[in-house]
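MOLECULE: protein
FOLLOWS: sequence and fold
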Amino acid sequence: ALDALSDSDPYVVAHVVTRHGRRRCRSRAWPALTNAACPVWRTRRLLGAPLTVDEGASPEDRLEILVYDLDVTCASALLGRDLIGVASVSVRDLAHAPAGAKYTLPLRLSQVAERARRRAGGPQADVRAPCGAYPCISFRQWPCRDFSAWSPRKWIFLIRHAESQWNVADRNLQKGHVSLEQFLINVDHGLSAAGVRQSLALAEAVRALRVGEHRLDAQTAGSEAAHKAFLAADAILVSPLCRAVQTALLALQHHPAAQSSGLELRSELRERKTMAGRDTRAACKGREIVDNAFEELGKTLADSPAELESARRIRVDTGNTAHEWWDRRREPSRRLQLRIHEVLVQLKLSPRDKTVLVTHSIFAQALLATCLSPDVRARAPELAGRLAGQKLPNCGVVALRVDFSQDLSRCIDEVQFLFGTHVP
């Protein structure tokens, strides 16, 4: 770590250079991760320069990856751009790696980082990184032709978490009842008893849809294709906040993707941190998130061991949550928009064409308010107004058809409510 009092806050910059050192594309950046000793991004970038000879690269061209430490407490001109290390590989060497395969490079540490490494382990010690090896960086790369073959038209299914203990405390506050424990002590609140029931009700609806027993009501009539597309989703991405993880484990236990490939936690899907909201603060990272979610569920489902065991069979990939992924301070609107943009970019740069996102009310509301196409706004102005002005109900599900050939700010060209969801 280059920071004196904590782990580093690393971020990555990558570009392609010729053998003479001239850049063939603009640098692409991966955002800083807070207090990340062994950072994991798992996000894609379109480099804008070929990495294969077939697509126009020279065998001597090189991919350069630079890792920096961002010190947010100091001006960037002074201490905000400490180089941790550099890795590079030639196009000739990359040709031996299949598309999408993991490729690992040693990280050549800067003098400052090397001194910090030696201080941490002693001058004669064989110091190893927290990941269990000498500092290195791993990545995957795909040719541009692969990306071009992926369909730009996709489905996104937004699910708001079920009712949480914070929702209950906030509702009681409006009635004049203050819960000091919930408002001043607890963080990252789990589901309430009603929230567990909501999740299990959605689980039953998903099961019924899967076996052909689900019946559409007046609110969701005409959405048969969207319901079928929901079942065909091949990825489920989940906010790492406890209430969202618990909702996904219970509500989606009968979904084919949950049963085959499981869930993936994505920190970008977390709720926006407000001035007073302790429900957006967390204390768990990585596997601790899953263990905490099950510990809390065990209390609520003490009389329903079968439901708990069904949820435990779902595999959970902890994704990019090994670092301090939550916000300590209020998140500005601009940063929320950057997170939404990142989510959409990752869906655009994925071969998957149907994805479920389990997230939160403010995140979903901001996405719907900013990314509807002009055609949707013109065809359904009343609906567009409700989506921008109202929150999805707890355990509500909305299907979004997106066209990623359009600008991300206008990519949603169809909206349908599923499983009886209604926005007043």
Q: What stands out?
A: The radius of gyration is 23 Å. Residues 66 and 86 are 5 Å apart (CA to CA). The longest strand covers residues 82-90.
